[in-house]
Amino acid sequence: MTYPHRAAFPTRWNDNDQYGHMNNAVYYEAMDTTINVWLLRAGLDPLAGGWIAVCAASSCEFRESASFPEPLEIGLRAGRVGTTSVTWELGILRPEAKQPLATGRFVHVFVDRASRRPVPVPDEVRAAISRDLAS
């Protein structure tokens, strides 16, 4: 699988669960963080901007275990880009690996900050997707 954007995700001591592998919730945290850092760079102003992106759906499929202290990377690409939403496709990988340990999907709907009603995907986000994340 190819991910145009890859971000480092160092595992932490408290990421492991009692079974000795990374807790499922940490996979979601890593994916959500990767998307939101990318959105910040694409123009999201979470405190004062006119729009925000809210998660409408998410999923993760686990293929292999990971655990502290191994370093990981989160791969990101844009899947479906709709009128008011984007489906992000993610992979959790070991550095240099082509096949992910886990794959995930997040659907973000873009909404007006005040009314929380859907708005079109912002132009700056569409441009950044075309430039950086088209699969």
Question: Brief overview, please?
Answer:
The chain has 135 residues and is α+β, with helices and mostly antiparallel strands.
Low-confidence stretches: none
Fraction in beta strands: 35-45%
* CATH homologous superfamily identity: Hotdog Thioesterase
Largest sheet: 5 strands, antiparallel
- Text of the CATH class: Alpha Beta
Morphology call: globular
Number of domains: 1
User: For the CA atoms, what is the radius of gyration?
Assistant: 15 Å
The share of residues in helices is 10-25%
Order of helices and strands: EHEEEEH
The CATH architecture comes to Roll
Q: Averaging pLDDT over every residue, what do you get? A: 94
Number of helices: 2
N/C terminus separation: 10 Å
Number of β-strand runs: 5
Q: Write the CATH fold name.
A: Thiol Ester Dehydrase, Chain A
What layout of secondary structure does this protein have?
Blueprint: E1 5-10, H1 24-42, E2 51-62, E3 71-81, E4 85-93, E5 102-112, H2 123-133
Antiparallel strand pairs: 1-3, 2-5, 3-4, 4-5
